[in-house]
Design brief:
With about 450 residues, the protein is α/β, with parallel strands linked by helices. Helix content is about 40%, strand content about 15%. It has 15 helices and eleven strands. It starts with a helix and ends with a helix.
C-alpha cells in the first residue's frame, strides 16, 4: 500500500512531495488492473484541477478521495450502481459529504462501483462488473459490499479516503475483507443529504481509509466536529468481548486471528472481560416482519420497479420487493421494539468503554462462488447473511464501530471490530488508535 493520508500530508508540508505528483500516482492506480471495475467513472481533469488548487495546509491537501456511486456530484446523474438510473437528471449540487471533503482540500478522483442500490454485503454487480479483492492475486475474491469499489480504491492506493455508506455493514465489511480501515460513525453525526437512500433509519454516511488516524481525519471532516481521542494507553479502557452471536461459526482463519488479537491486546495492557448480551437473541423476532431496509427501500423504489424492474439485479429486486408485504402496524411495532431493544443493550454496554468482536465471521470467498448465474443464488444469500450478521447489530443499535485489520501477513484479511452504542464515537476511535499500535 501507499503511505496513508497522514504520512503523505507530512510529505506535502515538508515539500518532499506535492499534490500534483501524488495525484498522478492516484490516477495511475485508478486505471491500473488492480482497480478493474472499481470505478464507474473517473474524473482525471477535475481531480488534477482540484489537486492544483488545494494548499498543503488544508486537511486533505489536494489528495485524492473517491465517492460511492450513490452520492450526488453536481452535473452528473446518481445511478447508485444501477443501469435504470443511468440517464436520470443530473444532480444540481454535490452531496454534503462530497462538498465537505472538497472544502477540506480533497480532490475527487471519481465515482466508485457498488452493489446495486447498496442492497448486499457481498459486493457483486452484474451491470458494471465486480472489482476483485487485492488480497489474493491468485484467486479473484469478493471485495465485500456494498461499498465495493470504494474499498478497492483505497486498498489499491488510488484514493486516500473512500467515501461510502453503511446500512448493515457496507463500510466495515469491505474494510475487513480488503485489509483496510472502515469507520461507521453514529448515523446522526454526518448529514445524508445528497445520498440516495437504502434505509432512512439505518443509513450512515462514512468512509474507508488506510489507517485509524486517517479515519479520525475523515470523520472530523464529514461530521464537522473535533474528535477528542486522547493518548491514554489500552490499560485505561475497560473492554469487553461478547460470547454470544458475534463468535458463532467463525471461519478457522478468523477464529485464529481474533484469538491472537485478544492476546496481543492483553499483552499491551488491555483489560478485557467476556460477557453475554442476551438481547441479541431477540433480533430475529424483532425483525420477523422484514426489518427496516426492505420496507424503506420498497417505499423509495416501488414506482421505479413498476417502470424498470427488468433492469434491476434480480437478487436486489428480490430483496426490495419483500418490503411490500410489511403492514403499517408492523412498521410502527418495529420502531417501538427497536427503541426498547436499544435501551436494554445500552444498559448492558454502559460499564465498558468499547466492545471487541470479529467484524465478519468469514474471509472473502471466491467471486466465482457467488457471481450472478444459475445455481449460485443459495450460496450468494448464505454468504450475504454471514457478512451482514455482526456489523448489522451496530446499525440496529444506532451505534458506532470501526473495523481495523488484525490478520497475520500470510493470512487473508480479517477485521477487528471495535464498537459501542450511539455517540461513543470518540472512545471507539481512541481504543482503535491504541489497538492499531499494539497490533
Amino acid at each position: 500500500m501507499r503511505p496513508d493520508l497522514h504520512a503523505t500530508r507530512l510529505a506535502l508540508l515538508a515539500t518532499t512531495s506535492d499534490a500534483r505528483t501524488e495525484m498522478e500516482h492516484s490516477l495511475a492506480a485508478a486505471v491500473s488492473p488492480a482497480c478493474a471495475h472499481a470505478f464507474t467513472r473517473t474524473m482525471p481533469d477535475e481531480a488534477r484541477r482540484d489537486a492544483a488548487a488545494a494548499t498543503a495546509a488544508q486537511p486533505l491537501g489536494g489528495l485524492a478521495f473517491s465517492a460511492k456511486d450513490l452520492f450526488d456530484i453536481a452535473g452528473q446523474p446518481t445511478p447508485a450502481g444501477s443501469i435504470v438510473l443511468a440517464h436520470a437528471p443530473a444532480a444540481r449540487a454535490d452531496a454534503i459529504a462530497v462538498a465537505r471533503l472538497r472544502a477540506a482540500g480533497g480532490a475527487l478522483l471519481g465515482r466508485t462501483n457498488m452493489t446495486e442500490f447498496a442492497f448486499s454485503g457481498v459486493g457483486v454487480n452484474p451491470h458494471h462488473g465486480t472489482p476483485a479483492n487485492l488480497a489474493d492475486p491468485a484467486t479473484p475474491r469478493i471485495p465485500g459490499g456494498s461499498s465495493s469499489g470504494a474499498a478497492v480504491s483505497v486498498a489499491s492506493g488510488a484514493a486516500f479516503i473512500g467515501l461510502g455508506s453503511d446500512t448493515g455493514g457496507s463500510i466495515r465489511i469491505p474494510a475487513a475483507l480488503n485489509g483496510i480501515v472502515g469507520f461507521k460513525s453514529t448515523a446522526r453525526l454526518v448529514p445524508a443529504q445528497g445520498a440516495l437512500p437504502l434505509s432512512t433509519t439505518l443509513d450512515t454516511v462514512c468512509a474507508m481509509t488506510r489507517s485509524v488516524r486517517d479515519a479520525v481525519t475523515a470523520h472530523q471532516i464529514l461530521a464537522a466536529r473535533r474528535v477528542t481521542a486522547g493518548a491514554a494507553p489500552l490499560a485505561a479502557y475497560r473492554l469487553a468481548v461478547c460470547r454470544n452471536l458475534f463468535q458463532d461459526g467463525l471461519d478457522p482463519v478468523v477464529a485464529r486471528a481474533f484469538e491472537r488479537t485478544l492476546g496481543r491486546l492483553a499483552a499491551a495492557g488491555a483489560r478485557i472481560e467476556e460477557i453475554d448480551l442476551p438481547p441479541l437473541a431477540d433480533l430475529p423476532t424483532i425483525n420477523a416482519s422484514g426489518g427496516f431496509s426492505a420496507a424503506e427501500a420498497y417505499a423509495w423504489h416501488r414506482l421505479l420497479l413498476e417502470r424498470s424492474g427488468a433492469g434491476y439485479d434480480p437478487r436486489v429486486a428480490q430483496r426490495i420487493i419483500k418490503g411490500a408485504t410489511m403492514r403499517a402496524h408492523e412498521y410502527i411495532d418495529l420502531i417501538h421494539a427497536r427503541r426498547s431493544w436499544i435501551e436494554r443493550m445500552e444498559q448492558l454496554l454502559s460499564p465498558f468503554d468499547a466492545m471487541l468482536s470479529p467484524t465478519v465471521p468469514i474471509t472473502a470467498p471466491a467471486i466465482a462462488d457467488v457471481a450472478p448465474g444459475e445455481g449460485r443464488d443459495d450460496e450468494f444469500f448464505r454468504v450475504n447473511a454471514l457478512l451482514l450478521r455482526n456489523p448489522s447489530v451496530i446499525n440496529m443499535l444506532d451505534g458506532c464501530a470501526i473495523s481495523l485489520p488484525c490478520q497475520a501477513t500470510d493470512e487473508l484479511p480479517v477485521g477487528l471490530m471495535v464498537w459501542h452504542a450511539a455517540l461513543h464515537d470518540d472512545a471507539v476511535l481512541a481504543v482503535a488508535l491504541q489497538a492499531e499500535r499494539a497490533l
